Amino acid sequence: MRLFGHAHQDWTYELILLDADGTLFDYDRAEKCAIETTFHDFGLDFSDQTLARYRSVNDALWKELERGNITSADLRVERFRRLLAEIPGAEREGSSSFDVEALSRCYLRHLAGGSYLIEGAEDICRYMAERCDLAILTNGIAEVQRSRLSKSVLRDIIPHIIISEEVGLSKPDPRIFEYAMDVLGRPRRDAVLMVGDSLSSDIRGGVNAGIHTCWYNPHGATCGQDLVPTYEIRALEELRLLL
Ligand SMILES: [Mg+2]
Fold first, then answer.
1. Does residue 19 have an active-site annotation?
2. Which of 74, 94, 195, 243 could hold 214 in an S-S bridge, CB 3.0 to 4.6 Å?
3. Complete domains list, the chain, with CATH
4. DSSP class of residue 92?
């Protein structure tokens, strides 16, 4: 664990806010399975290149969502519209008769069915749940996130889930953090920790909200100079050291 200047080693956290995708859930795996199955359902060719292009298009749109420039309802269809426009084999399907919205719904159905946990997530959540209050704070799509959580063992361990689409605000907007703290018993701000893999939403949001942050960075990415998480970890089990 990397500990930055202003952290207190013997801090007592009362509430831990956990990001879902890429932090507790293996979103890459769920996403790949869901796209592959959807393309198969619609008779479209799927390759690793398709997946890579989808991720690029999707990431750009989620950044737009974080900036408040697109709604999650528009995002879910727009990403496939852009992707299909790039795929030569899909141009024919890209005619007006091709139903991108149906494809998007099909994808979300498959995605909602795929609940794969990151290694160590269940154990660390059980450990933390005995010591403090836990809540998921996610920018995901409500029907997908609720379905995936309901299929997961985490359902019985993490009592609260706060979803941007339902609140009408997305991380890193500090107001969704304020909302979370309001509905979760208004703990002292310095007793709240945000844990997540995204610098732009989880860490930026936590910093904006004035709470401690823990950056889950399994692949050893470089942190931008202007943003300083309170802690940085490579494996979820390192969270034990904070409780
Ligand atoms: Mg994430």
1. yes
2. 195
3. 2-25+118-242 (3.40.50.1000), 28-113 (1.10.150.240)
4. T
